[in-house]
């Protein structure tokens, strides 16, 4: 009976403490905005409506801000293909939302062997258009050849920026849109690349959310260890009770989503955090312009094939890469223009 009372005297305060933490965490999660953008796999009707709205928005803003001044900090290159939908207008519309009249200079890098309607319209609107494969036919009947072309096109478009006066280059694919706070996020990223991450050659601004683990799990485990150790010191329960409480806290925090730490931290600091790069995905990559000549020269000769495309080549190279701990862009494409399947 004595042992039971002793156990209860330790357990009841601990249960109350951990219960209070669970409630507090749930309240913080409800208060914290979801910062990271999710993918938008729109059906064909939704996609057409979204793209039409984006096109009208872009044309309206383009009429107000037709001329973009050079920027010493950032230049933007968009890899474009003929998708038979106004994808490029959607990207430009979201960039205008983020930057307005201060939009950095934008270059449209067309990877088609021929010109097409949307790119011609944008050329008439005085956008800078470069056609890297003009009058150069290519064979994409085989998957390996399609992947090789996508990879080669990516390096060619990146190579256009090797002599840019801007210190950083943002290479975007044409089936994304950027976060409404994108400008401030990129400015905080630029600051980090100038200071604490001055050794980093590139940073990815997108990763599939459900696959993010490198940055979130250590933070969740660390917070749980800290809180459990503090309660153990304050309440002096038996170790087995601390272990049970730690596991309960870990499960509850993990159930809040692997992006909860990133959302909470950004809400407090308004700063983008760089973490180790996980292999995948190049819809938006932020390059240090000074590193681009070496990156292109080293990687353009690399063979690409299924399972070893441009993202793998970049991540496995000698160049230092990082990724943001939440998505600064959203992937809106239904299909790859070359692969004809889910991107």
TrEMBL record:
<keyword id="KW-1133">Transmembrane helix</keyword>
<keyword id="KW-0808">Transferase</keyword>
<dbReference type="GO" id="GO:0000139">
    <property type="term" value="C:Golgi membrane"/>
</dbReference>
<protein>
    <submittedName>
        <fullName>Glycosyltransferase XRE-1</fullName>
    </submittedName>
</protein>
<keyword id="KW-0472">Membrane</keyword>
<feature type="transmembrane region" description="Helical">
    <location>
        <begin position="214"/>
        <end position="234"/>
    </location>
</feature>
<keyword id="KW-0812">Transmembrane</keyword>
<feature type="transmembrane region" description="Helical">
    <location>
        <begin position="12"/>
        <end position="31"/>
    </location>
</feature>
<dbReference type="GO" id="GO:0006506">
    <property type="term" value="P:GPI anchor biosynthetic process"/>
</dbReference>
<dbReference type="GO" id="GO:0016757">
    <property type="term" value="F:glycosyltransferase activity"/>
</dbReference>
<dbReference type="InterPro" id="IPR029675">
    <property type="entry name" value="PGAP4"/>
</dbReference>
């Amino acid at each position: 009976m004595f042992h039971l009372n002793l156990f209860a005297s330790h357990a009841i305060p601990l249960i109350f403490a951990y219960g209070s933490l669970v409630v507090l965490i749930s309240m913080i999660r409800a208060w914290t905005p979801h910062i990271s953008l999710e993918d938008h796999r729109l059906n064909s009707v939704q996609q057409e409506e979204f793209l039409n709205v984006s096109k009208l928005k872009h044309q309206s803003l383009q009429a107000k801000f037709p001329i973009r001044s050079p920027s010493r900090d950032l230049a933007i290159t968009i890899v474009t293909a003929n998708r038979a939908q106004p994808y490029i207008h959607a990207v430009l519309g979201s960039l205008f939302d983020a930057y307005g009249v201060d939009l950095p200079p934008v270059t449209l890098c067309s990877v088609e062997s021929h010109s097409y309607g949307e790119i011609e319209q944008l050329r008439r609107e005085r956008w800078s258009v470069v056609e890297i494969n003009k009058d150069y036919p290519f064979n994409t009947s085989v998957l390996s050849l399609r992947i090789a072309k996508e990879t080669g096109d990516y390096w060619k478009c990146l190579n256009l920026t090797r002599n840019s006066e801007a210190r950083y280059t943002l290479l975007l694919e044409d089936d994304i849109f950027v976060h409404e706070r994108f400008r401030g996020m990129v400015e905080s990223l630029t600051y980090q690349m100038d200071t604490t991450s001055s050794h980093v050659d590139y940073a990815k601004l997108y990763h599939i959310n459900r696959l993010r683990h490198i940055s979130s799990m250590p933070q969740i485990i660390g917070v749980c260890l800290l809180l459990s150790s503090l309660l153990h010191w304050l309440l002096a329960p038996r170790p087995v009770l601390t272990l049970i409480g730690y596991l309960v806290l870990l499960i509850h925090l993990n159930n809040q989503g692997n992006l909860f730490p990133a959302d909470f931290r950004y809400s407090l600091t308004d700063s983008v955090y760089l973490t180790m790069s996980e292999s995948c995905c190049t819809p938006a990559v932020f390059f240090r312009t000074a590193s681009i000549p070496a990156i292109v020269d080293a990687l353009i000769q690399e063979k690409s094939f299924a399972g070893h495309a441009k993202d793998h080549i970049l991540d496995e190279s000698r160049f230092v890469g990082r990724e943001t701990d939440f998505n600064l862009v959203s992937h809106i494409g239904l299909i790859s223009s070359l692969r004809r399947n889910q991107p």
